[in-house]
Amino acid sequence: IKALEINPNYVEAHSNLGNALKEQNCTDEAIASYCKAISINPNFADAHCNLGVLFKELGDLDKAMTCFSKALEVKPDYAEAWNNMGNIFIDQEKFEEAITAFNNALSHKPDYAEAFYNIGNVFESQSKPEEAIAAYNSAINIKPDFEDAYNRLGVTNQHQGKLEAAIKAFNQAL
Fold first, then answer.
1. For the segment 54-68, what is each residue's pLDDT rounded down to a tens digit?
2. SS3 at position 44
């Protein structure tokens, strides 16, 4: 808050204040901080993306999608915004659009383990276990301590009757 007293138009401080308020469950204040950042600089993609994450958490997928779209309009190579958009598509059961969004994230950030993990989740939900396993393994190769990826890898292997592989993956998650 001191930074905003010194410079009330400090865009990053407004966005970061929004993040802190969101963590304290001060939703209305967080939204106001993100919107203030955007009003100062409409091209500040992080504020659009952070606001989108908050709207997604609140269950307002339309507003979240609008925010992520705006972030990508401003910064087309924003991998996190592509990834967040993909997660909304999963929630809407638009799986092909989700894969496209995650692949867009990976085209801009090839070492984005979370995007591979999310691709694995899509394939798992589509009953495509081999593709899911490959995606989870890609995530793990990038981020060897990715507990959620090991867990989903274990579940997918277990469903395939590959119990030794499942047990190994579950142990890695621990």
1. 999 999 999 999 999
2. coil
